[in-house]
Model the fold of this input.
Amino acid sequence: MRTKNSIKNIISSFVNTFILNILRFISRMIFIKQIGELYLGVNGLLSNVLGLLSLAELGIGSAIAFSLYKPLADDDYDKINSIMFFYKKAYRTIGLIIFFIGLVMLPLIPHLINDTTGIENLSLIYFIFLINMVVSYFFSYKRTLVDANQKNYTIVPITVFFSFLTTVLQIIVMLVFKNFIIYLLIQTLTVILENIFVNIYINKQYPYLKENNVKPLDDKELKGIKKQIKALFFHKIGSYAVNSTDNLIISKMIGIITVGLYSNYLLILNTINSFISTIVNNVLASFGNLIVKESSKKSENVFKELRLFSYFMYAISTICFINIFNPFITIWLGKDFLLPMFVVYIISINNYFFGINYAVILTKTAGGLFDEDKYFPILEAVINLVASIILAKYLGLAGVFLGTFIGKIPTLINKPMIVYNKIFKKSSKEYFLNAFKQVLLLIIMLILTKGLLYIIPNISPLIDLIINILISGLLPLIIIILVYKNTDEFKNLINRFKKLVLRRG
Done:
């Protein structure tokens, strides 16, 4: 059943991801032409600012998801209902807190931009962003139950429809009105409607959520959840500092337009990552269920499969990013929107180390290991901010991203050690040795693809891009298969793929 549900989630999510990403690329082109790169930078900046406010969520969502694994496995509806009732009250309280903190921060927003010339109605734009975020806390909490129950595929049609509707309406608004305010209001309206429809569906599928006689969580259970939340709060701080402060630093120290330029690269990066994470994320719930029910040995075997799959995907995508980022941007938007090649290398490498650590993070989350390293994210945040600000003074944009990489180093080392010690009950030496070999293989594959592309003559921008994609994708794929084809984890992955094909047939 775990495999079946994961497959359904993956297929439905893939369809969603494919449709939406095509629309997003079209929308981005129209946005730049009709509204301008200045507001593109504002959009990226305010998204990160609101990310800061999301720290008030404290990590409750992840703690609740973990708490739901066992009662869902045991069909304990009373316990599920009690947890969700607590979740609802907590999220609505958080939504109000975020709203008021957001209002207090309103006068500070202009000071986050080194030059606000040409930006109209900045306060109103920020307020709409704030409302958009707050609304989700009043409606979205029930989605956690669907995710934990491995039934995310059931609400995909609703999310696809409203995401499609949002993008289409925004494209029309940009073409007709060229107005950023209306563009944002469309998103707010469709987010509200989507959440209403999703909640109606979930209430029908889980009727016990509407019961009035809900028993509150006992003190022991509540204490356990609060402990997880406390630990997750520190993790959220670290995550925000590493993943969401770059735009703030770029905006203040380099310029808001550069934020917009970087956002184009980020769109491509996130598009590819969304396809990869679609598979891995949809395995998370079933993996959490597995950890609850199965032995540490079986959990480790599945972990090794996830680790190898992550390497497959992120090693190949990293080489593709390095080789195709700028050629694609040139064709899509033009040479005026290019970033220096050195910056492209650092962005791509940062993404690689995020990706190869993905299996570790998923395993750690599924295992509920939040308290063991709760203070490490603070160290990560401090290192990231200090390094990014200092290096930005000397290296500019490249320094910001280099500082981000330096900030990741503590967790890249610490998280695998915790997973191996607490879940697999063994040393992590094998993991780090394997990670080192994988980095060496990545360097070799990059050198080979670069060398091959160097000797191939240029024909035209489009044909050159296609050749870059084919060589950057196929050559590393062949090499990785040859290197790993005799390993148990590779054979297990192939068997899973065969089962998937047979089930679909």
